[in-house]
Amino acid sequence: MKTIMVATDFSERSDRALRRATLLAKHFGAAMSLVHVVDDDQARRIVESERDIAGRLLHELAATVRDVDGVTCATRVILGAAFAGIAQAVEEIAPDMLVIGPHRRQALRDVFIGTTAERTIRTVTLPVLMANAPPAGPYRHAMLTTDLSEGARRAARNFSALDIGHGARVSILHVFDAPALRLGMSHAMPKSDKEHYLEGERKNATRALSEFVHSAEVGRINKIVRHDESTPAQEILNAAKAGAVDLIVIGTHGRSGLAKFFLGSVAEKVLRNADRDVLAVPPSTVP
Fold first, then answer.
1. Which residues pair with 222 in a beta bridge?
2. Is there a contact between 208 and 202 (Cβ–Cβ < 8 Å)?
3. Strand ranges (E), the chain
4. CA torsion, points 25, 26, 30, 35, in degrees to nearest 10?
């Protein structure tokens, strides 16, 4: 990894992204690029004022990163809509990874759909790390998630190539379905029959996950299967909590092969509700 880009709005949320990116940059010997987007759909004098203020704040942050952490750091202010400006910066800077802060959570309504974080992940074709937790050091336990699709296989390989989990315990989770238990008459099935059926589905899922890991060529990795008792997203979050996972890795393309479809379901819900870092990895080739 040579360049890590951080999109910041100077909030406390963005501070987490900055700190995590700095830790990663020091580990990889990479340079950093700090980017802030100024909304240009305002009066010209307001845009110019915000651009000047942002430039000064970025300069101060970059100086701290260089002087305190010894990491080379460049800055850039872009005018435009937030997600479009970030996408533009990604295209121009060509970083190996983008780091962003967590989305805002509001009690009265969910503001994640269509916001900067989701739209950015939908748009760019590089790994995006959402830094949800306060950075306390290197990752200790990274957990990949898979639906056993080709896109997930390529995303797993790309995660291994990134080496972001170097030195950490690495697991891979597959949430399996037991369709017979969702049928209307399943309540009439004897408990012993349900247990036998579920155990059979678990063995099938374990076998399929082992085959997936072998074909993905991701090396030695702890394999986890969980029954989809609630929703796949919730099972991912439950597994992360149970395993003291501090980095959840999700692919941005699922069985449909469409980022829009996948991000509209499992990945989006994980990103929306995770209280720990989430790395969204596309199936495209990592440099």
1. 171
2. no
3. 3-7, 31-38, 73-79, 97-100, 128-130, 141-146, 169-176, 222-227, 247-251, 277-281
4. 40
CA-CA distance, 206 to 176, in Å (whole number)? Answer: 9
Across residues 274-279, what is the average pLDDT? 93
Residue 177: other Cβ atoms inside 10 A: 12
Q: Which residues contact 5 (CB under 8 A, 6 or more apart)?
A: 32, 33, 34, 35, 89, 90, 93, 95, 97, 98, 99
pTM for the whole structure: 0.88
Instruction: Give the C-alpha separation, 257 to 14, whole Å.
Output: 31
**Greatest CA separation for the chain:** 73
Q: Per-residue DSSP letters for 23-37?
A: HHHHHHT-EEEEEEE
Q: CB-based contacts of 275: which residues, under 8 Å, 6+ apart? A: 132, 133
How far CA 64 is from CA of 14, 22, 70, 127, 218, in Å, comes to 15, 11, 9, 25, 37
For residues 245 and 104, the model is more confident at 245
d(CA 284, CA 263): 16
Span 226-235, pLDDT tens digits: 998 888 899 9
